[in-house]
Amino acid sequence: MDPLAVHKALANPARADFLRWLKTPERYFDEPYYRERGVGFHIGVCVTDIQERSGLSQSVVSGYLQILREAGLLVSERVGKWTFYRRDEETIAAFAAYVRDEL
């Protein structure tokens, strides 16, 4: 985990929102819609749904998600033609410990 990359990734309010939404996706996204399609939040949330909730363009959302993934905060998974994102809780815990112990 690169603490500077994590700080940079979280410096953007929209990216911080994405991370918060993915912490409790059932609060922000339509869980029955996912269940009907045989996909659970354990796989993640579809880029399209994140884009719709944010109101940002698809290209901006994809770029922001890529920054969060490269910082180690998200994991992506392809299911068919769709990409789903979920939080990487190990990296998030390591960063929280770094902030608590080092700063």
UniProtKB/TrEMBL annotation:
The keyword Ligase does not apply. It comes from the Bacteria. One of its GO terms (molecular function) is DNA binding. Residues 1-103 form the HTH arsR-type domain. Keywords: DNA-binding, Transcription, Transcription regulation. Pfam families: HTH_5. Signal peptide: none annotated. InterPro entries: ArsR-like_HTH (IPR011991), HTH_ArsR_DNA-bd_dom (IPR001845), HTH_MetalResp_TranReg (IPR051081), WH-like_DNA-bd_sf (IPR036388), WH_DNA-bd_sf (IPR036390). This is Transcriptional regulator.
